[in-house]
Design goal:
This protein has about 160 residues and is of the alpha/beta class. The protein has a single domain, classed as 5'-nuclease (Rossmann fold), CATH 3.40.50.1010. It is built from 10 helices and 5 strands, in the order H-H-E-H-H-E-H-H-E-H-H-E-H-E-H. Strands 3-2-1-4-5 form a 5-stranded parallel beta sheet. Helix 3 packs across helix 6. About 40% of the residues are buried.
Length: about 160
């Protein structure tokens, strides 16, 4: 796990990198979690993506999912509770627009039924489809089930 200060340094000024084109996207919780946790396997791809991110959206569910991921890190002694709360503050600084689940849940339920993917995940897909934005995720099932909507962070930041 990386340090919160390393992630903050990578995101100074809302992750602006003036030399790259700016992107708008729906961001899956796993992308934010890997960013704030500094997960080694994904950290470079996530940081590069965050450097190109202009505006981000997610179903309001993302906040609870991220808090749960950080709680799990405290349970496994990966983070102290103080470190976890600091990383929540870092995530909050990303200013992700939280969209009420209620505005997405009917269409997300239909997508879940058709795709056999959980509603938790199809909320993100539905938001991306509705807003005509890419869904940036590491979730292999979403990438496979929704190839026209879901992309890895590296696919967006390399455009």
């Amino acid at each position: 796990m990386g340090s919160p200060s390393a992630a903050a340094d990578a995101c100074r000024g809302r992750c602006l990198d003036r030399g790259r084109p700016r992107v708008n996207a729906v961001v899956d919780t796993n992308v934010v979690a890997y960013f704030v946790l500094g997960t080694h396997r994904f950290v470079e791809e996530v940081r590069t993506f965050m450097a190109t991110l202009d505006e981000a959206w997610a179903p309001a569910l993302w906040e609870a999912e991220l808090a749960n991921a950080l709680w799990m890190a405290t349970r496994h002694d990966v983070l102290t509770i103080d470190e976890a709360t600091r990383r929540l503050s870092l995530a909050d600084a990303l200013r992700i627009h939280a969209i009420p689940n209620r505005t997405l849940w009917q269409a997300a339920l239909i997508r879940a039924h058709q795709s056999k993917i959980a509603v938790y995940d199809t909320l993100f897909v539905e938001l991306a489809a509705r807003e005509h934005l890419p869904l940036v995720t590491f979730d292999a099932a979403l990438l496979k089930a929704f190839p026209d909507i879901a992309v890895r962070p590296g696919a967006v930041s390399s455009e």
